[in-house]
Design brief:
The chain is mainly alpha-helical. It has one domain. Helix content is 86%, strand content 0%. Helix 2 packs across helix 9. The radius of gyration is 24 Å and the shape is globular.
Length: 310
């Protein structure tokens, strides 16, 4: 009797684990697109730092990402149980923040390029490397928070009808898989040039050629990731906003449907158009957010300058 009860318990546990594994697999597929954006956004965070500090920075951001998910997973479960209506507004706020960060980078790069060049030419003060690294890490962790929130929310939507225990297991599994996957790949990308240098010093001709190729590819890859990372901010942020606004989502769907009718390339256009729509919406939202934030800063500064009334 006890033996059969034990076997029944083991069978139940196996079935539960199988259900969790299946749901985790489905959730992983749905969040795979975010994984690419997360990778691009975080790989660019180590640009401009010395080679010996690349992995420590990646590790610091990875720890920050784990902390983000330790906050987000319980928060998502609590919100889904107590205030499910709040998930979409919170996601949209995060999407707007991503668009703001992306547009701020563009504005700073193109509008203040001359000022930065002038400052670099006249400034002889040494750079505070610790402060510079800390700024990089904080920026990466903030960005990771938004992307992690999207990953957790998408995963939660996949298992919304599952029992609470299974939801916890799936969200925990996705959080670990995504964090290890993203930052493991980021660590590999940023050390690509070191691998190239190591191979280029070998005597074997094939290894030397591979090393030379990696050394040529590494800087191009980092520059590409920097551009893709900024674009990803607009695509991810804009995608969150357009999916949260029914009218915008309908327009995107109609444009994609219309593009499908184009001869020969209709299928390709149908896949590309929604992404372009999201990116354009992200750029517009980022510009509006930057204008509002800049205006608010000026108002606050003007209020602070006013003399206090006796």
């Amino acid at each position: 009797m006890a033996g059969s009860s034990l076997l029944t318990l083991i069978d139940d546990i196996a079935s539960l684990l199988d259900d969790i594994a299946v749901m985790t697999k489905v959730a992983t597929k749905k969040t795979a697109g975010v994984l690419g954006d997360d990778l691009a956004l975080n790989a660019q965070q180590v640009t401009g730092v010395t080679a010996d500090r690349e992995l420590p920075i990646v590790w610091a951001v990875a720890k920050g990402s784990f902390k983000n998910k330790l906050i987000l997973v319980p928060a998502a479960l609590a919100i889904s149980a107590l205030a499910p209506w709040a998930i979409t507004p919170l996601l949209m706020f995060g999407g707007a923040y991503l668009c703001f960060e992306g547009f701020e980078k563009l504005a700073h790069k193109y509008l203040h390029a001359h000022d930065e060049h002038h400052e670099e030419a006249v400034s002889e003060a040494p750079v505070d490397q610790a402060a510079y690294e800390n700024e990089k890490i904080q920026g990466a962790v903030r960005t990771d928070f938004i992307l992690s929130a999207e990953i957790v929310t998408i995963s939660l939507g996949t298992v919304a009808a599952a029992p609470f225990g299974q939801r916890v297991a799936v969200l925990a599994s996705i959080s670990i898989i995504m964090t290890v996957g993203v930052y493991g790949l980021v660590a590999g990308i940023v050390k690509l040039d070191d691998a190239g240098l190591y191979l280029s010093q070998k005597k074997d001709a094939f290894q030397k050629s591979i090393g030379a190729l990696l050394l040529m590819i590494a800087p191009l890859l980092m520059k590409t990731l920097s551009v893709v990372g900024t674009a990803a901010m607009f695509m991810v942020g804009g995608g969150i906003l357009t999916h949260g606004i029914p009218m915008a989502h309908d327009i995107s769907h109609k444009l994609a449907h219309s593009a499908h009718g184009v001869p020969a390339i209709g299928g390709l256009l149908e896949a590309i158009v929604p992404t372009l729509f999201d990116a354009i919406a992200g750029v517009i939202a980022g510009a509006l957010a930057l204008v509002l934030v800049t205006a608010a800063k000026k108002v606050i500064a003007a209020v602070k300058k006013q003399p206090a009334t006796p």
